[in-house]
Write a structure and sequence with these properties.
Elements lengths: L1 H12 L4 E6 L14 E8 L2 E4 L4 E4 L3 E6 L5 E3 L7 E7 L9 H12 L4 E5 L2 H18 L7 H22 L11 H13 L9 H8 L3 H12 L3 H19 L4 H7 L5 H12 L3 H7 L1
Antiparallel strand pairs: 1-7, 2-5, 2-7, 3-4, 3-6, 5-8
Length: about 290
Amino acid sequence: MLIEKLETVQKQQDMPAFTIQHKVDNHTPKDFHSHRGYEIVWVRNGEAQFIFEERVFHLKRGHVFLFNSEKLHKVNLPDNQAYDRVMIMFQDDLFCYEQPIFQAFKRLLNQQPTPHFFLQIEERGYDNFHHIIRQLLQEDMSPNNWQHQHALILYISELLLFFCRSLQTSKERTFQESAANPVRTQERILKEINSLWNTNWQLEDLAGKLHFNKYYLCHFFKKEFGMTIHQYILQRRMYEAKKLLRQTSIPIAEIASRIGFSTASNFIRCFKKYQHVTPKQFRNQA
């Protein structure tokens, strides 16, 4: 059983360097999650809400959203509504040489206040954009094509070029100015929670800072994000723990303290419950 769980963790880490999917179902991960690389979502029909640590984006038909998928994120969908989208995920490993457009894209992304790009596809650019997506879908269905890997690099580079040029000329770079009140409220709550997730926080103190009744705050959070505040904080702690385990050699006890656990044993027990391996085993696999 332990070997099977370790293999599951390894498979999650060994995601392919490139995937593209055209999906029309309403199946999305229920929890906050992260994975290596970058993700592009083109909403063809329907709506979706992308939630990050302190930002909320409401996507509608014709919107394209690109983001660093290593950041903690979650997708919420309206009830009983079709969600037609094309999803592209790619990693640095896709590029077998130093592609200048990809390098310029990463620099541009790093210059943004948050690692997200939003774009409304204008009518004059739709045909070009749609052509690139169609080429990627066709190439993905024919992996035995001559120079398949280089073709993927070519089309992804063309897509990033289109995206970055459009962003440079777009006047609407984020949703913040036109966001509805519920979105601003969501972001205000997330910002406050993310200032205390690794502390010995109290619900009454959080509600007081937000000027909410604590019962209303719990109800609002569960309704908007599909989980309780405690569940979100635990998912944030697991996310931060995995980053520290992958990227550092910090002792397990110190990681436990940094992410808000009172003892290392509590952290190890909680981590194993949600990740199915101990922190030490996860670090060895990573």
